[in-house]
Write a structure and sequence with these properties.
heterodimer; A: mainly alpha; Recoverin, domain 1; 9 helices; elongated; B: 5 helical Cullin repeat like; 5 helical Cullin repeat like; 5 domains; 3-stranded antiparallel beta sheet; 10 strands; ubl conjugation pathway (chain B); isopeptide bond (chain B); Cullin_N (chain B); Cullin_homology_sf (chain B); ubl conjugation (chain B)
């Protein structure tokens, strides 16, 4: 098992910051169950799936791994993977702080203009953990609804948290909606 | 040998036709001159017969036509010459003559009618005679216009109040009908309807400036009756509907909006002032008018909603829940009467009323509580001496009607339970039978689950009474101990309320805000037995050791919550005839600085004195929030259960359909909020009862 220290060491070896999103990509390849932990099996399978057999080769692969985020399909998988990965063991939902951190990390690479409003809204109005459904539906929201919310549909079966977010944006004049 | 009339020998005489025709020609002249009696029918018939036999049918027919035309022209001139009022009479006279003549001529020429005419496809004699009359007399340029004008003129005069010769009218229109229904319709009916339309257009315009709505409608009704009578007296029956439509349109349909909305006399005014006669008239008149009834209905509905809204949101009214509900009942009575008396119990109107009531009753979210309080009031006091002497059964039935309008029946249930519990535990119900009656009504309306807990409360009471009886039967005669009355409460059936602490004499335990006790008390030299609530008992017991206590001392020693304590002290000190305590100062309200003295001057005619409180009161604001919160919490599992039921059977369903189905399932109890439904769905997703479809995010799947 590679645990927190081991992960830290790994990051050193790879010359990356532990907060670097590439670590998430690597963890995804490894199908790691938990943040900052790798079982032996996960580690080996992961390296294989990436197509390398040494740390040096892994280091060389970093740019292309980072680029994977730009791919729509892979991004979706990585995004959804991140939820379970970032969770505490035995918990069903993701603590708000962690969720916000993950979102910022993920959407830094895939520009979403509303990310700041979203995080602020959550801290001001929600203050509770994030459910899996909300997590995955948020990606759909980001992908399909434009930042001015012109194509947001109240009957769209969005999670209530997202409905509330839309209300929040409207109340605060952040968007102009034609109702 | 026998009578064979046709055995005469007929010669082939070149003048045969002319001679024969002359006979007929002369005969016809005599007929038209009213001289028919001298003629021999048989001879004439035979003459015609022979002519036809000898193949002169065609010539005979043509000659006849010419002949008739001649007579008709003469008659026409006579008619034209008639002056003024005699015109119609002359026309009638000539018509009668012509008909009589035609009948005879037809008889004479019957053989031709039966043999020659069918094969030559010509018009039979009589009919042809009528056609000729139509063309030469009626539709002659000098007569036709005058005829129509005269008829219409007479009708107009009659409409203006004059008496006219109806018999003459009748005969004239009959004549037109006999000439053919298209003659009647084209020559008379159509101009009649046109002229009537402009007459009534003018009449209605004048009337609406002069009259108020009620008067106008009376006039319209009168006119309609007149026209109907007119038709029956001197027109074809089929004209009845047509003229009615004209009057409806000109007098009613065109001015409908203006009439209904007339200030101070229109529909709303009639409703407010219970003008049943006017309303009946309006209903009857507008039955046939397009959108008539639907307009009345919608105006009534919006008026009821408006006045209802004012009723339920008026802060004055909200202070007294019993009065609030009584006003609702009065309003319902008022409109029920209107619908029954004036609107023929029309179901569509009843439905519109119901929808309006449902709308405004639910505008005030305290309606369920207030209705329960009203029932509570009635069940405590009974309805003796009620202003309108209805028995309790009728009152409860009427309350049930209001209950049906409630969208939040589960809120009502909660309050009803609380109030019922208080009534039962304090023994304050005036009639057990009435209580049970009410439960039966609720059960019929809402099903068994609604009332099962309430019913078990009754059972507990019976059990308590039985147990008490056997308890006292077994007691070894120590009558100095405090008499207690115990109520057995099945947990779960009785509404629990946050049970305030209260420092009880240590012998007593239990729910302190209910229950009562009998205390023996001595005032001067009089002994009384006081039946008091638990709280009252605690307060009074303090006076065992002292005669005077301040409010603060009482509060401290009993630890009864201030709101309840003040109510309790009021009942002990401020109620005439029950003032076992004396308050200083003597004001009605309890303030923190008051002092209380044991009132040894208390007297009562009765040995046993019941000192009441524990009356169900309308909840204070925090209590109300509390109750509402509990109702909301109770709703969540019901919503979830509904979602699961639906998804289990449908397997896959989209979001909006789930909301619709859930609402349908629960609407008998309350109207679920779509946002709450959404949150419950998400909770069920979290707990892995449901999942979203991978392709269409608006669909949900049931996870077995």
């Amino acid at each position: 098992m590679i645990m927190v220290e081991g992960t830290s060491q790994l990051c050193n070896d790879l010359l990356v910051d532990p907060q670097d999103v590439v670590m998430l990509v690597i963890s995804w390849h490894m199908k790691a169950a938990t943040m900052c932990e790798f079982t032996r099996q996960e580690f080996i399978d992961g390296l294989q799936s990436i197509g390398v057999d040494s740390i040096e080769k892994l280091r060389e692969k970093l740019p292309s791994l980072r680029a994977e985020i730009k791919d729509d399909n892979k991004f979706r998988e990585i995004y959804n993977f991140a939820f379970a990965w970032a969770r505490e063991k035995g918990q069903k939902s993701l603590p708000l702080e962690t969720a916000i951190g993950m979102w910022r990390l993920l959407f830094a690479e895939r520009h979403w203009p509303l990310i700041d409003h979203w995080c602020q809204f959550l801290q001001v109005r929600h203050n509770k953990a994030i459910s899996r459904d909300t997590w995955s539906q948020l990606l759909e929201f980001v992908k399909t609804i434009d930042p001015q919310l012109s194509n947001y549909d109240e009957e769209g079966a969005w999670p209530y948290l997202i409905d509330e977010f839309v209300e929040y944006l409207t109340e605060n004049g952040c968007v102009q909606r034609n109702k | 040998p026998g009578c064979g009339p046709f055995k005469h020998r007929v010669e082939v005489d070149p003048k045969f036709f002319d001679k024969s025709w002359k006979k007929l020609d002369d005969a016809i002249r005599e007929i038209y001159n009213h001289n028919a009696s001298g003629l021999s029918f048989e001879e004439l018939y035979r003459t015609a017969y022979n002519m036809v036999l000898h193949k002169h049918g065609g010539r005979l027919y043509d000659k006849l036509a010419e002949n008739l035309k001649g007579h008709l022209r003469e008659m026409g001139k006579l008619v034209e010459a008639a002056q003024g009022g005699l015109f119609l009479e002359e026309l009638q006279r000539r018509w009668a003559d012509h008909i009589k003549a035609l009948q005879m001529i037809r008889d004479i020429l019957m053989y031709m009618d039966r043999t020659f005419i069918p094969s030559s496809k010509k018009t039979p004699v009589f009919e042809h005679g009528l056609e000729l009359w139509r063309d030469i007399v009626v539709r002659s340029p000098k007569i036709h216009g005058r005829l129509v004008d005269t008829l219409l003129e007479l009708i107009h005069r009659e409409r203006m109040g004059e008496m006219i010769n109806r018999g003459l009218m009748r005969n004239t229109t009959k004549m037109l009908m006999e000439l053919g229904s298209s003659v009647y319709q084209d020559d008379f009916e159509r101009p009649f309807l046109e002229v009537s339309a402009s007459f009534y257009s003018g009449e209605s315009q004048q009337c609406i400036e002069r009259c108020d709505c009620g008067e106008y409608l009376k006039n319209a009704e009168k006119r309609l009756a007149e026209e109907s009578e007119r038709v029956s007296l001197y027109m074809d029956a089929k004209t009845a509907d047509k003229i009615a439509n004209v009057v409806d349109k000109e007098m009613l349909s065109i001015h409908m909006q203006r009439l209904f909305l007339m200030e101070n006399s229109g529909l709303v005014n009639m409703l407010i002032n219970d003008k049943h006669e006017d309303l009946t008239r309006m209903y009857d008149l507008f039955k046939r008018v397009p959108d008539g009834h639907s307009t009345i209905r919608s105006l009534m509905a919006s008026h009821v909603k408006e006045t209802g809204k004012i009723l339920v949101t008026d802060p004055e009214r909200l202070r007294d829940p019993v009065d609030f509900v009584q006003r609702l009942l009065n309003e319902k009575d008022k409109y029920d009467e209107i619908v029954s008396v004036s609107f023929s119990n029309d179901k569509t109107f009843q439905n519109a009323l119901n929808a309006s009531f449902e709308h405004f009753i639910n505008l005030n979210n305290r309606s369920p509580e207030f209705i329960s309080l009203y029932v509570d009031d009635k069940l405590r006091k009974g309805v003796k001496g009620a202003a309108n002497e209805e028995d309790i059964e009728t009152v409860l039935d009427k309350v049930m009607m209001l209950f049906r309008y409630l969208q939040e029946k589960d809120v009502f249930e909660k309050y009803y339970k609380q109030h019922l519990a208080k009534r039962l535990l304090s023994g304050k119900t005036s009639s057990d039978e009435a209580e049970r009656n009410m439960l039966v009504k609720l059960k019929t309306e809402c099903g068994y689950q609604f009332t099962s807990k309430l019913e078990s409360m009754f059972t507990d009471l019976k059990t308590s009474q039985d147990t008490m009886q056997s308890f006292y039967a077994n007691l070894s005669g120590d009558s100095d101990g405090p008499t207690i009355s115990v109520q057995i409460l099945t947990t779960g059936s009785w509404p629990t309320q946050p049970c305030a602490t209260c420092n009880l004499p240590p012998e007593i335990l239990g729910q302190t805000n209910m229950g009562n006790a009998d205390i023996k008390a001595t005032f001067g030299d009089r002994k009384h037995e006081l039946n008091v609530s638990t709280y009252q008992m605690c307060v009074l017991m303090l006076f065992n050791s002292t005669d005077t206590l301040t409010y603060k001392e009482i509060e401290q020693n009993t630890a009864i919550p201030p709101v309840d304590l003040k109510r309790c002290l009021q009942s002990l000190a401020c109620v005439k005839g029950k003032n076992v305590l004396r308050k200083e100062p003597m004001s009605k309200d309890i303030s923190d600085s008051d002092a209380f003295h044991f009132n040894d001057k208390f007297s009562s005619k009765l040995v046993k004195v019941k000192i009441g409180t524990v009356v169900a009161q309308k909840e204070s604001e925090p209590e109300k929030q509390e109750t509402r919160h509990r109702v909301e919490e109770d709703r969540k599992p019901q919503i979830e259960a509904a979602i699961v039921r639906i998804m289990k059977s449908r397997r896959v369903l989209d979001h909006n359909s789930i909301v619709t189905e859930v609402t349908k399932q629960l609407q008998a109890r309350f109207l679920p909020n779509p946002v709450v439904i959404k949150k419950r769905i998400e909770s069920l997703i979290e707990r892995e009862f449901l999942e979203r479809d991978k392709v269409d995010r608006k669909l949900y799947r049931y996870l077995a």
